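Technical note accompanying the year-one report. For the benefit of new consortium partners, we illustrate the data format agreed upon in the data management plan: each record pairs a sequence with a structure-token string. No post-processing was applied to the example shown here.
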Amino acid sequence: MKEKIISFSFVGSLFLFFILGFVLKDREVSSYERRKLMTRETLNKDFFGNLDTYLTDQFPFRDELISIHTVFERYGLGNKDSNDVYIKNGYVVEKNYPLNDKSVKDFIDKINYIQEEYLKNSNVFYTIIPDKAYFLSSKNYLTIDYSQLLKTLSKNIKMDYIDITSLLTLEDYYKTDIHIKQESYPKIIKEFSKYFSFPYQDYKYQEYHYSNFFGASYSKVPSFTKPDKLTYLSNELLDNISVKHLEFGEKPIYDKEQLDSVDSYNLFLSGPSAFIEIENKKATSDKELIIFRDSFGSSFTPLLIPYYQKITLIDLRYMDLSIVPQYVTFDNKDVLFAYSTLIVNNSSILKVSVK
């Protein structure tokens, strides 16, 4: 009798969830998983081909069930690095371990190749942006040897290094995202000014806040984790400058429509883009800057605009180096390579063929 009750309860629960899945209104986006979900509209285009995905995406209490599983792994089983993230003082830290020596060498070879092939007549520097794991104790967490990594890069990359690690702390990063808060970048812009010789000014930016920012790491931790506050800095100059994307034309520097998208960080320069040009018609100099960058560059670049007539952003994750010279010339320009340690440890993503 007991077995029958359990069986009927189990089957009844499955049937109830199945019915709820069709009765409840479809959710278009999961803020917890940071992705779009399949809806009935998509299901109807290929019912049998999409049915399994639709039922999975629209399963009632999906986010809560995923969160319960995450809680069990982290607190029930005691896994500090569940889903490849740690939680340190409320900060979600992506695991960047172990150090990939082959990737580091590949990164060095690619950067040196670009320098030797295109930048002999340019004013070139590079900086490495540490990930949050840099600020964790190696005694308690699986972290790479950052000291050795930076020493290896400095020894082998054939350009001058701008060290920003001492300017940052864990608190400069979002809690649920890998990136640095934009309001933490002015001190780094000041450091850049010492190398690129532009007159740093302490601009009084207006701060704008968005209080419901679910970062890239949010889906890997329990759903009761509080979202971040995203702050962006602007003034009259930045409000009146547009950004020209190779892929999708002109956009504002701060694309506010992205705040309610799957990734609110795409507010900055409209998110991932292979090639971007920014012209400052009110510039007081004719200096131009070219930045080879990853996603971290999206939020610090706006704060460099007042100092340059033109800034060009190149993201080699999406654009092959071989076609870059069709769109930009490098001679007599300032050039900055700004990459996070996450890219250094996964450099195969950079589309550079070293000859």
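Partners are asked to follow this layout when depositing records. The chain is about 30% helix and 20% strand.
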